[in-house]
Amino acid sequence: MDFRTALLRAEAAHGSLLCVGLDPDPDRFPGGWRGDARRIFDFCAAIVDATHDLVLAFKPQIAYFAAHRAEDQLERLVDHVHRRAPAVPVILDAKRGDIGATAEQYAREAFERYRADAATLSPFMGFDSIEPWLRWEGKGLFLLCRTSNPGGDDLQAQPLDGGDRVFERVARLAAGPWNRDGRLGLVVGATYPGEIARVRELAPTLPLLIPGVGAQGGDAEATVRAGWRGDAAGATTGPVVVNSSRAVLYAGRTEDDFAAAARAVAAATRDQLGSARRHRLALK
User: In whole angstroms, how far apart are CA 208 and each of 4, 13, 14, 33?
Assistant: First the structure.
């Protein structure tokens, strides 16, 4: 099935808006695993096993694997997710941005080598850096729009002729002429709920990937109120994928408890997001 369908089915099946980001830092591994990059797969697979019924997606960040020469472990991890939780899509957080044949090779890496269901892209080089990715039928693409880091203001918040800010222009393009077959989404940081609402206004049905809840301080209630949209029956019309990484991954301290601690934090976050969604529906 296509990525959007898989996303909505996982949301409904698990009652969840939560995406767990898989950003393995061996220096933060529990107990005797600390500092051992050979344990990257073991660590992440244990998190997947503990949380797969609580999430609507997993999001491995490629740099955390490549920095430790662990790309083979990333391949094994995505295969593990597909076997352990076949209904949960995988978003490869790669933030690629290039044109022509190079973009095609990056897409081949994401969708053939790693078998991801979606990927994150930088739109800075324009539509011809995105078009090669659209050749992989059914795959989702999230374009950086209004990111959670403070330095995003340097470019994303700058005004353009005509009145739009840069991030608003990206949202308009993603919701309009660039979205040729309905597979684009946008990355919008939880630390800017007012701007999430503005992006949602410009792109009412696009999936929004929202990092920043948890360790980065984003507010779950404000995030869901600003970004999630549903019809009168409660069915999702504007999906949100709310990512939490460090708060889930590093909740425990020992090899014996880290997966259970991750599950507890993921469950609490899932429930918090669900409560915010119910509140959002009540306001309609």
Answer: 11, 19, 18, 35
